[in-house]
Each structure stands twice: as C-alpha cells, then as structure tokens.
Amino acid sequence: MVMASCVLVASAVSQNVRAEGEPAEAFVKQLRNAGYFDTAISYLDRAEKMPGVDSSFVAAIPLERAQTYIETALNSGNPDDRDKAFADAEASLQEFLTRESHPRQSEARLQLGKLQMIRAAQLLAGEPVETEKRQARESYLAAAKTFDGIVSDLRGKLESMRGQKIDPEKDPDAAALRDQYRFEFLQSQLNAADAIKLAAKTHTDPAKDGKAQLEDAVKRFEELNQKYATYSPGAIALSHLGDLNELLGKSDLALDNYLRMLEEPAVDQLREAKFMSAAGVIRLKLAADPPAYQEAIDRTANWVKEIRPNEESLPVVQEFRIQLAKAYLAKAADDSLKKGEIGRAKSEGRDLLRAASKVPGPHVEQAKAMLADLGIEQETEALPTAEPPSSFDDAMEKATQVLSVTSDLEEALKVIQAQKQTPQLKQQIDDIQKQIDESYRIGVQVLRGGLAMVTSETNTESLNQARQILAYFLYQSKRLRETVVVGNFLARHAPGTDLGLKGGLMALTSMQLLLAEVPDDANEGLILQLESLGKFLAKTWPDDPNAAAAQGLQIRLLLKKDDFDGAQQLIDDMAAGSERASFKRLLGQLLWNQSIVARSQENDDAKSEMLIDRAKRNLQSGLDEIEGNLIEVEGMQAATVLAKIHLMQQDSAAALKVLDHPKYGPLEWITKLGKQSEAFAGELYSTELKALVGQMLESDTPETYLDRMTATMEKLRKAYQGEESQTRLTQTYMRLANDLKAQLDTATPARKTKLIEAFRVMLQRISDATNDNATLRWVGQTLMSMGEASMDQGQVKATGQAADLLAQAVETFKSLPDQDNPTTAYLLGLSQRLMGEYKDSIDTFDKLLQQKPLMLEAQVEAAQAYESWAGTLPPNIAYKAYRAALEGARPGKDKKNVIWGWAEISSKTSKMINRNENFKEKFFESRYHVALCLYLMGKAGKRDDDIKKAIKVIREAATLFPDLGGPKRRAEYDALMKEAQRSVGQNPVGIAKPQPNGN
C-alpha cells in the first residue's frame, strides 16, 4: 500500500511537472530526498522520452542515475542490495564519463572518486580481514588517482580561463562555470589527500607500513592549506594535518593543527572538521604525562552545546563525545578532588556516552563498554531522603546522587514518550514526572540545609559548586525567580570562573522566561535587572561566546523596544569580532526600516535622513568587519540594503561598488550560497539595475554599460516567476522608467540625445532576446518615457525623435499578448495621446475604464485626451470635445459616463483630499482643468458666460484653498484667471492675495 501511494504521488507530481515544462532535475531530487529511490530510477528511465524535458538534463541522466544508486546503497540495510547498488552506480558513472564534452564531466569524476571511497569504507566495516583491508587500500588509492586526474584536468581549464580574463558582468555563465571548476578543483585536492591518508590507515601499523603514504598526504594537505586557506577545503586541511601528525607521533605539530582549526571562522562548512579537531585535542591532552584532562575539558567542552539536531548522528560527533567522556572520566579518577567534583565529572561522562550509544555505528560497542564500567547498566540509584544533611559534604554527596537519579529518570521518560501512547504508558509518564519533580525538590531542600552548615574552613570552590547545582535544581523545577537570585549571586561572587558563568547564564535564561510571563507594562524592573546582569557577564567573561550571547540578548531586547541609541552603545562596546559585526549589520537594517517609516508615515524627512546616515555607517562597518572569506545570507542582505542607501543618496557608483565588492558583494555570493528567496533575488537584481541606470545617466560613455544591463535584466526576469511576482516585476520596471524620465527631463539637449541613443540600443537588444510580457512592457514604457522627455515644454503632440520613440512604444504595447492587462492598456493609451492619436487613445481608455472605472490615472489621461484633441478641431466641434473633457463621455450600460471628465474627477477627489498627497494633487490638477475647459469652451463658442464660470471656479477654489496646491499650481491658476478676466473685459488682476486673519 505504501509503495502504491508513492507511485501515485510520483505520477501526480510528474503530470503536474510536465504541465509546467518538466523541471525534471528538481523533481528527481525531491524523490531522492523523500527516499523514493526506485521511483526516481523509473522516472529517469522514462525521462528521455518525455516531452518538455530539458536536453541538458537528458544528457546527464546516467549521472543522475548514479547519484540515485549511491543514495540507495547508503540507505540499504541489506549487504547484497547495497553491493548491487554500488555496482550499478559505478556502471552509470562510467557510461556518463564516455560523454567527454559534457560540462558535468568533472562532477561525474568527483562522484566516481567518492564512490570508490565509499566502497572502500564498506570493505572495512565490522572486523575486516587482511584481504578486505588490502582491497580497501586499493580502492582508496584508485580514488586518489581519480581525484588527481580531476585536479590535473581542471588546473589546465582554470589557467586557460585566467588568460581569458572573464568579466562576471559581461559573461555570467562563464564566471559561474569558473567558480564551479574552482570548487571541484579544491575539493578534488582535499579528497585525493584524504584517500591516501585512509589508504595508509588500512595498515596494521600505519606509521610504519604506511609511512610513505602518510607523508605524501601531509605534503598535499600542507600545500592545500598554504595556498587556499581562505577557502573551505584549505581550512579543512588543518584537521587532516592534525590527524596525520598524530599518527606520525608528532604530537606538538598535531596539537597546533587542531587548535588552528578550532580558531577558524564559525561557518557551517567547517563544523565537521572542528568536531574532528576537538576530539584530536582531547586525545593529545589525555596522552600527556600526567593526563591534562582539565585542559582538554576547558578547551572543548563548549562544543557539546554547539551540536545541532542535524549533526547528532555524525560519526565525528560520536568520536568527539567519546573522547570528551574519557576526559571527564579521567577527572573522576583523580582522588585528589572532592566527592562533588568527582560525581559531576562522572555524570558529564555518562551523559556523553549515553548520547553516543544511541547513534548506530562502530563506536557503540566502545560507548556501551565504558558505560558498563561506570555501572550504568545497574538499576537506578535510590533517591536520598529529605532528611537534613549531617554536614556540607553530606549535602553535596546527596545532591550528586539526586543528579544521577534524575538523569536516569529523564532518560527513561524520553524512551517511554517515544512509544505509542496508551492509558498505562500515560500513567507511567505521569508517575516518572512526579518522581523527577520530587527529586529536584529534595535536592533543593538538601542543598539549602548544607549551605546553612558552611564554616570558615569550607572550600570556596565547593561552596560555589553547591550554589551552581542549587540554581540548576531550581531552574529545572521552574522556580525561576529563585533561580535568578541564586544564579545572579553566584555570578557576582565567583567572577571569571566557569561556575560563576553557568550561574549567571541560568539567571539570564530565567529572566528571559519571566519576561514572557510578565506584561510589557510591568517588566521594566526585570529588564533593568537583565541588562545589568548581561553587562556584567560580558565584561567579566569577554572571551566566552556564551557571555557574548548574553550581551547579544541585551541588544535584542533594546532593539525590540526600538531603543536604537542604547543598542548602538552596547554594540560599540563589544569586542571586535564576528558577533559585533553581525549586530552592526542588524542595527543598520533596522535603522533603514525606521527611516522609511519616518519618511512615509511620519513625514519627517530630517529624521529619516539622520536614520539613513546611521544605518549607512553601521552597515558599512559591519560589512568591513566580516572575518575570512565566507559570507552568510544575512551579509548579502545587509550589503543590498547599503547599496539601496547609496542609490537613495544619488550615488550609483558607490552602490555598484558595494554590490561588486570582492569580499561581501552579494552579486557574487548569491551564486555561491545556493538558491535564495525570490523576494531577495528580485530585490538584489532590481538594485543592481537601478545602479546601472544611474551610472548610464552619469557616464560620458553610457554605451559601456549596455552588456551588463542586458544581462541584469535577464537575471531579474528569471528571479520573478508566477503571477504575483510578475506584478512586482512590473512595479520595479515602472519605477525605473519614471526615474529615467525624471533624469532626462533635467539633462542638456546634447546629453539627452546621447542617453536616448544608448538606451534605444539596449532596449532593442532586450526586445530581441525575450518574450517576457513584463520585460517588453518595460521596454515600451522606457521608450514612452524617453519620447515624452524629448518633447518641448508645453508641447502637446510629439514630433521628430519624440514621435519616433512614441511610435515604437505604441508598437511594443500592441505586440503584447496581454492587451487586457490594465498597465499595458494604460501605457498604450498614454502613448497614443502623446502621439496625437486621440481617438485611438480615448478608445483604449474607454475599454480599460469599463473594466477598471476607479483607475484614477486612466480617468485623468482620458479627460486630457479629449482636451488635447479639442485643441486640434474646428471651433464648433472643439466646443463639444471640451465639453466631453469637462463633463465626461462614452455612456456605459448603466447610462453613466465611463469616462468621468474633469468635473467628476474633481468632485470625487475633493472628498479624499486629506487621505494622501496623490488625491490632493489630482484634485488641484482636475479643478484647474475644469476652469481651463470652461475658458476654452467660451473661446471656441464665443460664449462669455462659460468664461465667467471659469473665473467663478478659480475664485471659489482660491477661497477654499488659498495655496491651490502649491506655488507652481497657484501660478497656473493665476495666469488662467488673468487671461479669462481679460477675455471678458475685466481688469486682469488675477487671484486675490490671501487676506491676513483679522484676529
């Protein structure tokens, strides 16, 4: 039944996929990720004959089939099935490698090398005999040879590319291929050296029998690290060097390698290597005489908290757990320590071994054996009674016993909770939880009794250990306020110690939880307490990441309250490093968001500018302080915001410099960090496009940007997919076209001509290269904007170059298949009006407004079309056209005019004048045209009554709204008033100046 369901799901998905154009590669990955390997193979067998499957994918089917067989083998529990899958994978890879011209050749060889290493590892599983060891060694060396072949091939290709001087802006595909080759080149070097190392380890005595191979591997890893330390493979080489030098007996060198690895930047690609190095540090410290168990614990124990859910089952993590457990058990074997310390060390070691023993693998036997030595398999210890302790030491011993009991009970609880729930199991869960709660209650009571019995001879460290355990018991009992008191006291009375830090962190965490319970209007005191403790932890333990996290919590609380000044102060006080840089970038982005609020909602431009300047400083500093050569997604977002700030400040050169920055430039990193969200990709490429437009407008040689702009347009188009995304793309394009028109309006005639020619060439390229509606609509709008900008001041109908550009715009809009799209129809009607094709323009707006009667911009343009048309007609016909512009025209099915006319536009916008600036602007514009049409009607029909009505309209508007929409618009009203007064024989005094208020 399950298999049938899988097939049905696959069938349904594949049908839907084909309907959308068969993105086969993504579909196969989904099947593999879901574990439907047989279905994936069946699909690949049929894909070549399916319509719509991309030819490049068809050519790579053997490679996809090999990957599927490899994952089948790795997930198979049957040895025979696993061997067959590996064999099928190798056969598929060999088949693909015969296609020498395929661009994924190096990827296939990389897979083949990995497959050879996997098969070698399979031979060594369990307890291999000498024959299996020899076969594994041969397989590892064969893998090394495969990887060396890749390195040799790619070295030549990369050198050739270096000679070509590839420009990522002009040839992004070639740049992407170069990056792919570089990654495979470095990864193959790493894999080759690793394969040689593993081959040496198949010997019974690697340092003796495999010494030559070990030394070869050392040489390779050293070269990789020295040349490519800023790339992941070069950094990872350090952990391998530590392993090799440890095998060769060079302990000091090995320790240096491991420690250097642990000091590398905290990025995901290096995490496994860091766990491997942490385990190596512990081994070397324990091998010292006497064993330096405390140094091992101090240097590596913090990594236990760093283990992520997806890393729980990694072999390197289990090795790390076992090695750290050995360090704790070595500490527990030190008789010179107090009972409490010994008990806690045993508890830590036991927890680590338990965690490792739950993950299948060759390490399990060792973990269980060590647990058995600790006596873990015995029944749970009896819980001590709540009787008062006889002494402080007695209290500590009982507290250690409580820790052991509760740990066992919590482990048992996890096992039962994972089972299918029944009434009996639920009751058992409740009973165990009650035992746990009772245990913590007893622990609190015993420790408080013990702390009351301390004397002047009580060891301070033991006293602080008791306080730390008490804080833990209180925290586990959810007695948060008491935890805050004990933990805070411990932190301040044991500064600089691990116990003090643990107490402080428990207090801090408890405060966080309390904040969630306390209403916002009653949490001021708690926040002040939290801020005080956070500052203390950060100051007292400046190098500890957990203490830094405490300071980070303070900063986040301040940011939550919009206390940007307080957050800025804390950030500036932090030690230099990745944490401070990250907070600067975060603060910069939040300040940018606030600047938008200040400008758009509060109408406070001065505040907005101040916030923008602060955002700019924080973003720039936060980006400059990024360590290493490894950028996260958040860094790309911060760089994009910084580029947008530069654009807002009219500095397109600075914006491009940020986008192209060699360390944090998002245009390069977006191709390296995998597929990003559509919203971010679209925003990034929109920002790049705006910067390029700005550079073209500023440059004396705008044509030099044509290739890059064309490529960016294509990337932007690909970033937006789907109907809603197309709307965002259209909005982006419209803003760009409006920006271009604004720039052209202020350009000198000579410069305007040069810019228009450069943009025409670019638009022609784009138009020839795409069928995308939004992109072609932008081409038409840009042509229209350039045409309108080429018209003289006051010119109503375009001529010359302006007419040519507008004709191209009309042709572009008419060629679009989405003629019912409101944006397309609006732009077509506007272009037709500017060309003087008034009837066509009115017909276009009539059809649009039947569907979108409330589209204000279209109503305005339709009225303007009638008004402009009237100016070209004989007087008797012009009168009717002016009346249509004034009163509306084209009655609909309801007998009401589809085209409102200036009077109706004025009436409707007058009711919304206080809503926003757009309605206000449209009201004063339409009211002016009401008066203008009345005046022109009077002139055309020789009717003074109409002209007097125009005078009345202006006088009433000036009485109600003395500023008439601003100085420019008021001047237009005043000029029309004087002309109308003159025409009817009145004194042309214009609009009366506003009278001062008598009061």
The order of strands across the largest sheet is 1-2
Strand content: under 5%
Indicate the percent of residues in helices.
over 70%
The helix-and-strand class reads mainly alpha
Give the rounded overall mean pLDDT.
82
Report the uncertain regions: 1-22, 376-381
Number of strands: 2
Which descriptor suits the 3D outline? globular
Note the gap between the termini.
Answer: 90 Å
Biggest pleated sheet: 2 strands, antiparallel
Tally the helices: 46
Q: What Rg do the Cα atoms give?
A: 38 Å
Q: Can you give a write-up of this model?
A:
There is one protein chain. 42% of the residues are buried. The chain starts with a helix and ends in a 16-residue tail after the last helix. The protein is 75% helix and 1% strand. The longest helix is centred in the first third of the chain and has 35 residues, at 130-164. Among the domains are: 1-102, no CATH class; 577-647; 674-811; 837-999, no CATH class. With 999 residues, it is mostly helical. It is built from 46 helices and two strands. Mean pLDDT is 82; it is low at 1-22 and 376-381. A hairpin with a 5-residue loop joins strand 1 (889-891) and strand 2 (897-899). Helix 3 packs antiparallel against helix 5 (61-74), helix 28 (578-600) packs across helix 30 and helix 44 (917-941) runs parallel beside helix 46. Strands 1-2 form a two-stranded antiparallel ribbon.
Strand-helix topology:
Layout: H1 2-20, H2 24-33, H3 37-47, H4 55-59, H5 61-74, H6 79-97, H7 105-123, H8 130-164, H9 172-201, H10 206-209, H11 211-228, H12 232-247, H13 251-262, H14 271-286, H15 293-300, H16 303-306, H17 315-332, H18 339-357, H19 364-374, H20 392-417, H21 423-451, H22 460-476, H23 480-493, H24 498-517, H25 524-540, H26 545-560, H27 564-573, H28 578-600, H29 605-624, H30 633-648, H31 652-659, H32 666-672, H33 678-698, H34 706-719, H35 723-745, H36 749-769, H37 773-789, H38 800-815, H39 822-835, H40 838-851, H41 856-870, H42 875-887, E1 889-891, E2 897-899, H43 902-910, H44 917-941, H45 944-960, H46 967-983
Antiparallel strand pairs: 1-2
Helix pairs in contact: 2-3, 3-5, 5-6, 6-7, 7-8, 7-9, 8-9, 9-11, 9-12, 11-12, 12-13, 12-14, 13-14, 14-15, 14-17, 15-17, 17-18, 18-19, 18-20, 20-21, 21-22, 22-23, 22-24, 23-24, 24-25, 25-26, 26-27, 26-28, 27-28, 28-29, 28-30, 29-30, 30-31, 30-32, 30-33, 31-33, 33-34, 33-35, 34-36, 35-37, ...
